[in-house]
Design brief:
Helix content is 36%, strand content 14%. The protein is built from 15 helices and eleven strands. The strands form three sheets. A seven-stranded mixed sheet has the order 3-2-7-8-9-6-10, sandwiched between helices. Strands 1-4 form a two-stranded antiparallel sheet. The chain has a two-stranded parallel sheet with strand order 5-11.
Amino acid sequence: MLSILALPADLQLIRQLGQNNELGPWRFELLASFAHPLDDEDAVLHVLDLDATARGLDDDGDAYRRLVAPFVARPEAFLAGALAPLRIPSAPLLLARFGLRGVWSAERVARRFSGRRARALFAGCAAHGVLPFDKMMTGAFGLIFCVTGHVETWPVAEGGSDAIAKALASYLASKGGVIHTTRRVASMSDLPSADVYLFDTDPSQLVAIAGEQLPSRYRDRVARYRYGPGVCKVDWALDGPIPWRDPACLDASTVHVGGTFEEIAAGEATVWRGEHAERPFLILCQQSQLDPTRAPDGKQTGYAYCHVPAGSDVDQTAAIEAQVERFAPGFRERILARHTMTASRFAAHNPNYVGGAITGGVADLAQLFFRPVARLDPYRTPNPKLFLCSSSTPPGGGVHGMCGYWAARSAARRLGC
């Protein structure tokens, strides 16, 4: 469900899996990472080439270059530091520069832009943080998503995103790993004996399973962890491509739908107050436009989701489709079938999505680095055998695998590896 956010090392592994025929062709021939349609004017396109993107931002092109160029110039060093727990970075000056910008709210960072095109582009990226735009650190989300699209065009896995999970499972099996998918673990007694255990769960499930093996003080702190808003998602079978008013939107697998910065900010603030936005911000994906294996000839698939209050059982299908129709007149006539998942249904489907939250927990200033609780090593628990490796640890939600990477390093140190 989440947009791809990958380190170069991740992409190297994926390409290796593809060469070993463990993953279908990894599609890089996308023309844009994302599109952002606006009323009565051309859509904003975020493409791999920084200058080409900047040229589409009218008078804000130079301001946009100044904002992202230092990080695009050194992407490996930047992402290695930005997607890590608090530690001494390998490029301290670069990360300090990122911190001086990212620590501010998205509202403040967007003030450097005078026109609505650059402000809208930044808003769509910042909204991935699932936070009101007046909160500190929301500028970091906008900046990091802007930068990654200039490092690699956001890719699409042929055949569906589960191809990534299958490829990783195949790789683990080739190293002797065994995966059990039919066992429900309710307590530590359901697990075989091991030197360490890594939990890819939300913190509350870790506590429920480990029970008295974790001290009460830690359990109490985990109980105060905040998960934030949920999502409502609609999947569509379509009788052809989405009829965007600006056909350039078909060049991107991801489309940020919500209009101007001010509209998106208002919608996210509404959700944070525990209400449903009449015009919600959407993250819409149309991968079949670029991957023909996902739909029969002449047909297309797509999905979109919006943020909603935690645990909501409100069906936002009408509001979601109205937003798409706004920028793609005739969209409703293309719908052959739909499937909707409310936040409450997401929570029932996957216990890790507490209240329908898909990001592992609120990523504000208090919980971005210190999640799920404040510890020097956030992956370790007070029990030296128990570790948490889910998106409820730094650097948080996203398709990047770095929570597991850092947790594995922590566990390896515990084992003396």
